Amino acid sequence: MNIVCFDTETTGLDVQKDHIIQLSLVKMEPFPVPGGKGRIEWQTIDQRDWYILPEGDFTIPAEAEAVHHISKAFLQEHGVSLLSIYPEFIAFTEGCDFLSYNGNGYDAPILHYNLARYGLDFRFEGRTWYDALILERIHMAGQIDPETGEKYHCNLTAAYTRYYGHPFEGAHNSLDDVMATIEVFKAQIAAHGWEWAQREEFSFICFDRWLTRKGGYYYLTQGGHKGESIESMMRIDRSYLEWIVNKCKWTDDQTRQIILSVLSPKQTPPSSPGSPITQKAPSRGKKRSKGTITDADLSLF
Question: pTM (2 decimals)?
Answer without folding.
Answer: 0.86
